[in-house]
Design brief:
The chain is mainly β and about 280 residues long. The protein folds into two domains: about 20-200, OB fold (Dihydrolipoamide Acetyltransferase, E2P) (Beta Barrel), CATH 2.40.50.140; about 225-265, Ribosomal protein L2, domain 3 (Irregular). Helix content is about 0%, strand content about 25%.
Length: about 280
């Protein structure tokens, strides 16, 4: 990917940048897309439960195969590399020998007309998918299963990957992008390589309108509100928050305290992420 900085013909374009995508400019496969109605942060009663959501450009949702276990041992040819407005990484349209098609997450380095395969054990090439116990240590992997048979759940964003540290009995030890080291069942599947579009995090949005196109509404500081609306609210002008530590709009401690609840998977975490 290439970062493009347009000429500063106005204040709105002075800082912004965008990506020049190395993808095929084709329409998505109609049989692999569905309508996508967004709730704009509201529940079934119409009540606002998630702030800062609403509007945005209309999108169709691409059905991504995060498992690929339905076609074990079958080679597939990459037909197109495509942009997906619903995620930061690019996707690839693949076709199996029987004519079936599917979308998968495209890793960095995957090219058109290459072949990919999902099997218990296969070649270590970008795009191939296999069990963790058959992947060599120090390999970069993405789209990793946490629960057997559920499909990839972690390392699916642009430029993300985990490093396989080694095997420990029935578990594999992985270092995640957050620096956390955890154990995952060695029979789970993972894809080889780094998720594509690694320059995604370098893009400067530059103006409010681009965030509105993404479906993100404005965020207002708590200390700009009234006391009835936020614990930080009130005071004369843009005054400090007036308390020992910041709080959420609902009064819970913010910006520091850990929010992870007790989970059975805590015993699988060998080293917590560094803040």
């Amino acid at each position: 990917m290439t970062i493009i900085k347009p000429k500063p013909t106005g204040n709105a374009r002075r800082e912004l940048s965008y990506l020049k995508f190395d993808v095929d400019k084709v329409k998505p496969k109609k049989s692999l897309t569905v309508g996508h109605k967004r709730g704009s942060g509201r529940n079934n009663l119409g009540q606002l439960v998630v702030r800062h959501k609403g509007g945005g450009a209309k999108r169709s949702f691409r059905l991504i195969d995060f498992k690929m276990t339905s076609y074990l041992g079958q080679k597939a040819k990459v037909k197109n590399l495509e942009y997906d407005p619903n995620r930061s990484a690019n996707i690839a349209l693949i076709e199996f020998d029987g004519g079936e098609m599917a979308y998968i997450l495209a890793p960095t380095g995957l090219k058109k007309d290459q072949s990919v395969i999902c099997d218990a054990k296969t070649a270590v090439r970008p795009g191939n998918r296999m069990m963790l116990k058959n992947i060599p240590p120090s390999t970069e992997i993405h789209n990793i299963e946490l629960t057997p048979g559920k499909g990839g759940q972690i390392c699916r964003g642009a430029g993300t990957y985990a490093i396989l540290l080694g095997l420990d009995g029935e578990f594999a030890q992985l270092r995640l992008p957050s620096s956390e080291v955890r154990k995952i069942p060695a029979s789970n599947y993972a894809s080889i390589g780094v998720a594509s579009n690694i320059d995604h995090s370098k893009v400067v949005i530059g103006k409010a309108g681009r965030k509105r196109h993404m479906g993100v509404r404005p965020t207002v500081l708590g200390k700009s509100m009234n006391p009835v609306d936020h614990p930080h609210g009130g005071g004369e002008g843009h005054s400090p928050i007036g308390m020992k530590y910041p709080k959420t709009p609902w009064g819970a401690p913010a910006l520091g305290p850990r929010t992870r609840r007790r989970k059975f998977s805590s015993k699988l975490i060998l080293s917590r992420r560094k803040k």
